[in-house]
Amino acid sequence: MDDDDLAARLKAFEGRRATVAGRGKDPVNLPMIRHWCEAMGDTNPAYTGPDAIAPPTMLQAWTMGGLSGHTSRTRAYDDLLALLDEAGCTSVVATDCEQEYPRPLRPGDEITFDTVIESVSARKTTRLGTGYFVTTRTDIRAGGELAGTHRFRILKYAPRKDAPARGPEEPRPAERRPRAVVNRDNAGFWEGVARHELLIQRCTGCRALRFPWLPGCHACGSPDWDTVRALGDGTVFSYVVLHHPPFPAFDPPYAVGLIELAEGVRIVSNVIGVPYDEVRIGMPVRLEFRRYDEELVLPVFRAAGEAA
Ligand code: ZN
Question: What is the pLDDT of residue 2?
């Protein structure tokens, strides 16, 4: 099978249905909601009481088939994965998930769902290896009305052979830090970083600050927010020293700090300006922005009193 032939066979999967008229194994129900909220530590009052709704991010839970699976699954997705296996793309990693919630789900709702193979990318070369991104879209309905959309993306790839085979005397390939995944929920944060501003989200309903960036307020549930710019002072709240596993672009041992900003929120970052074994809890640190390569700038924290 040559590359063009493979590309055409992969493209032919786009639009094929992976699940047809699936039905939730249980109606939306309070016990599952309660277990979810306990596991997630989510105490939002919207999920309890007589007018409870289901947490929107539970969307996929209502479609899960459990050990016995769903009979509504077609062969399409398995056939696509088998074709990719045959082409040498035997490894898989889930890359990201996007959800939309046009209408809340409530206890008693009986859900139905359909899954389509939405896209198969052209061949891409990533740090993990060369392969194809496969995106499925599941539309979840309640009473025939669209309640949520769940897009799930995997990378099916042939693992790189060069990395483990490289001898110690051979030059290392250019190793760059991994890129952040920028999405609709956190784009504003990265835009701030590009301007050398560390932006904290602030709920415009109850004024609670939150970090990292999330679509809703953990305190009151409001989706409305603005930002405040961190002044840059912080302290090391906790830290770990990484020795293993080795990872490209990082040179162990190094300290990863959980920094408590003066504003009260915490951020994971590197502590610079002191040896890794001199980082201590309570150490005052100061924000700065460090450029790692031509496109990557990250907020880092310098031990206070250390000259830049
Ligand atoms: Zn709030």
Answer: 78
Cα 213 to ligand 1 centroid, rounded to whole Å: 13
Same domain, 18 and 148: yes
Between strands 297-303 and 266-272, the pairing is parallel
245 with 215, same domain: the answer is no
**CA gap 234, 301 in Å, rounded:** 8
Kindly state whether residues 238 and 218 are assigned to the same domain: no
**pLDDT, position 34:** 96
CA of residue 194 to ligand 1 center, whole Å: 27
- Mean pLDDT estimate for the chain: 91
Q: Tell whether 166 is covered by a domain.
A: no
Cα gap 298→3, rounded to integer Å: 39
Same domain, 14 and 134: yes
The pLDDT of residue 132: 96
Question: Which amino acid, one-letter code, is at 247?
Answer: F
| Count of domains for the chain | 3
Q: Which residues of the chain fall short of a pLDDT of 50?
A: 164-171, 173
Give 192 Cα–ligand 1 centroid separation in angstroms: 22
* Ligand 1 mean position, distance from CA 37 (Å): 18
What stretches of the chain show up as alpha helix (H) in DSSP?
A: 3-11, 30-40, 76-86, 162-165, 187-194
pLDDT, one tens digit per residue, over 223-271 is: 999 999 999 999 999 999 988 877 778 888 889 999 999 999 999 999 9
Do residues 23 and 112 lie in contact, with contact meaning Cβ atoms separated by under 8 Å? Answer: yes
